[in-house]
Design a protein that fits this description.
The complex is a heterodimer. By secondary structure, chain A is mainly β. Chain A is built from no helices and 12 strands. Chain B has strands at 4-7, 10-13, 19-25, 31-38, 42-49, 56-57, 65-67, 75-78, 87-94, 104-106, 110-114. In chain B, a hairpin with a 6-residue loop joins strand 5 and strand 6 (56-57). By secondary structure, chain B is mainly beta. The chains are: A mainly beta, B mainly beta.
Chain lengths: 113, 115
């Protein structure tokens, strides 16, 4: 069974703090991983993706994520959060070569002033 | 940027009634998807399509049908709606499958309440 796990349902941070959101996957073969952000009442928007090559990938608005095959992880990080980063963040995965994205359950990030 | 439009934004239906959720995309993407979002479950794939005339079952297809009459349009149909289908439904489109590391573009969602 292919799964994507996000262990933290809710994370609260202060503006200016760093944040790391965890994502672990269980997939066979080569994998494609991505992160999406969902602001309240909106659809999901793409943040970044890993396909191959450099395991650290940069996304929009200062987000980056690091792929680790040994840990089966793709954690998302940001060095200094802004209040506008308050949202739900979804990790997603699929096997390279086919099939639709499978999403994790999401992590809600609340940024306090 | 790809545009994905869902209609209606909100829908209230009665148990046993028929509901059709519509999705239109204007970026000529081959692939389209229907997900539902529920607390504690994240997004779950209902049906998807990789071109006009094709529909495929996702992870939770029971109680749902899909229709892809054209490249632009992808509908989700609930023939006999039940309260368990109360949810927020998202349509998405994507241009490249599999090895091209597809990026999905989402609509704003349809909030369906079945009474």
């Amino acid at each position: 069974t292919q799964t994507v796990s996000q262990s933290d349902a809710h994370v609260t941070v202060f503006e200016g703090d760093s944040v790391e959101l965890r994502c672990n996957y269980s997939y066979g073969g080569s994998i494609y991983l991505s992160w999406y952000i969902q602001h309240h009442g909106r659809g999901l928007q793409f943040l970044l993706k890993y396909y191959s090559g450099n395991p650290v990938v940069q996304g929009v608005n200062g987000f980056e994520a690091e792929f680790s095959k040994s840990d089966s992880s793709f954690h998302l990080r940001k060095a200094s959060v802004h209040w506008s980063d308050s949202a739900v963040y979804f990790c997603a995965a699929s096997n390279q070569g086919g099939r639709a994205l499978i999403f994790g359950t999401g992590t809600t990030v609340s940024v306090s002033p | 940027e790809a545009a994905v439009t869902q209609s209606p934004r909100n829908k209230v239906a009665v148990t046993g009634g028929k509901v059709t959720l519509s999705c239109n995309q204007t970026n000529n993407h081959n692939n389209m998807y229907w997900y539902r979002q529920d607390t504690g479950h994240g997004l779950r794939l209902i049906h998807y399509s990789y071109g006009a005339g094709s529909t495929e079952k996702g992870d939770i297809p029971d109680g749902y049908k899909a229709s892809r009459p054209s490249q632009e349009n992808f509908s989700l149909i609930l023939e006999l709606a039940t309260p368990s289908q109360t949810s927020v439904y998202f349509c998405a489109s994507g241009g490249n499958w599999g090895s091209s590391a597809e990026t999905l573009y989402f609509g704003s969602g349809t909030r369906l309440t079945v009474l």
